[in-house]
Amino acid sequence: MSRTGLRQKAKLVLMTQPYSIATVLAQAPFCSLFNPLPAPRSIVTMTNNTHQSSNTHLEAVFKQKKILRSSVRKALKGMDPSSRSQEDNAVQNIILEAPWFRSSQRLCAYISCSSLREVDTSKVLSEILQNPAKDGHTQMGKKLYVPRVEDKNSYMRMLNITHMDDLISNSMNILEPAPVDGDGNEREDVMQATDPVDLLLLPGLAFDKSGRRLGRGGGYYDAFLKNYLELVKERNWKQPLLVALSYSVQIMDEGVIPVTPNDVPVDALVSPAGVIPITTAAQERCH
């Protein structure tokens, strides 16, 4: 068949398709009928603009977070030591008396660092470790997992400890569990545990009453929480309660804390003024 005949046949086939497609292809050079058409410039431009807009938005968010972190650090640094101590005690007493804490059997909790001006958790940890779970049984005690930073790529594990002596200072002089116990056995990683945790006590720099949490910029907790919550979903476990501990100066107005898709919100806040339940799960358990 001649080239003219092929073109006429192609037109006949194409006219059975939607008019816009048939018109574009029928008016194209013969070779383009047998080769892919380049993407319309408008689509390429729109994709590039969307990508650039997304990058610009993220850059703006990171800049806002940096400014807010600096502001909150100044506020924490300006806290009177006696006021800080009073707020530490108030937050911990609220936790220790809370039904959702008392009923928890397995939990993750951070080890407070005074140089980072985190809400103190020493009283809560001591209470847990004075009555730990025996041989994996939690009916009469609690099983505790605490954080260990493994590298600078936001990789953090939660390892089981039974005594404060299980902790060692890392390169930043922050207490964390040694990877093995006194007998040389590897500590249980919460990601390999056969049972779910009920509660996670979380640190942070700033929070709001809609559940937004501003960390210190390393992404360790957000990465861990994302992975653990995916594990919970895969195993069809009950969702743990995510509770952040906060000084009064760390609670922001709603909308002040910028977020990205990687930021994991919390279920409730504990401040010196009391428990602030945010999600439905928290409202049911923190009544």
Automatic annotation (TrEMBL):
InterPro entries: FTHF_cligase (IPR002698), FTHF_cligase-like_sf (IPR024185), NagB/RpiA_transferase-like (IPR037171)
Catalytic activity from the UniProt record: (6S)-5-formyl-5,6,7,8-tetrahydrofolate + ATP = (6R)-5,10-methenyltetrahydrofolate + ADP + phosphate
TM region(s), chain numbering: none
Cofactor: Mg(2+)
Keywords: ATP-binding, Magnesium, Metal-binding, Nucleotide-binding
Pfam short name (any one): 5-FTHF_cyc-lig
EC category name: ligase
Gene3D superfamilies: NagB/RpiA/CoA transferase-like (3.40.50.10420)
EC number: 6.3.3.2
PANTHER family: 5-FORMYLTETRAHYDROFOLATE CYCLO-LIGASE, ATPASE INHIBITOR/5-FORMYLTETRAHYDROFOLATE CYCLO-LIGASE
Similarity comment text for this entry: Belongs to the 5-formyltetrahydrofolate cyclo-ligase family.
NCBIfam families: MTHFS_bact
Protein name per its UniProtKB record: 5-formyltetrahydrofolate cyclo-ligase
